[in-house]
Amino acid sequence: MRELFRAPTRRYMIRLLVVALVIGAGGWAFGVEPVASIALGVIVIAVGVSWIVIDVDPPTPWPDAYVLHPGVRRDVDDLARALAGRNARVGYSAWDRVRRLAQRRLAAHGVDLGEPAHRARADALLGRHVATLLRRDTPPRTLGAITACLDALDQLSRVSDQNRTVS
Q1: What is the predicted pLDDT for the residue at 50?
Q2: 85-133, pLDDT tens digit by residue?
Q3: Which residue intervals of the chain are DSSP H helices?
């Protein structure tokens, strides 16, 4: 409240009171009821004081642009940023990357997620829950669902690697 009466703000307050008085008196002079003229002046004061109080502090500076530190891989960094999306939800870019990874891993096993005939095989390889998630176009709501998908794809990769070493 004290900030309203400091030197730079005091000028704005005086101008605001003069403008409110002129608007109220002008309304009364043009035939507006006295109570309505006073109310108009009070509204002008309320809006003006709000405007002044909001503008007292200097604008908050935006943080500096993201700087990529030496040695940091850009693709991992982008994926991490996409996973920590707005409102703690997974972003579309991360979900698209997970789905492309799933399509590549499943293609090595001759399975296409978009093909209804391959549905049973995809369910067997990944688990019904993960396969159902990967068929959706919209990302799941939680990071745990993404983790389950990545774990299933990692397990699928390990199984295929073990089969190659055994053969």
Answers
A1: 82
A2: 666 677 777 788 888 888 988 888 889 888 889 989 989 998 999 998 8
A3: 7-29, 34-54, 74-83, 92-107, 119-126, 128-135, 143-166
In whole angstroms, what is the distance from residue 40 CA to residue 159 CA? 76
Q: Nearest-CA neighbor of 106 among 158, 161, 157?
A: 157
What single letter denotes the amino acid at residue 6?
Answer: R
Question: Do 105 and 149 contact (CB within 8 A), yes or no?
Answer: no
Per DSSP, the residues of 139-154 read: PPSSHHHHHHHHHHHH
Higher-confidence residue of 111 and 161: namely 111
Burial class (CB in 10 A: 0-12, 13-18, 19+), 156: buried
pLDDT in tens, 25-37: 998 899 989 999 9
Q: Rounded distance, CA 130 to CA 147, Å?
A: 10
Query: What is the Cα–Cα distance from 24 to 16, expressed in whole angstroms?
Result: 12
Q: What is the dihedral of CA 59, 62, 63, 64, to 10 degrees?
A: -120
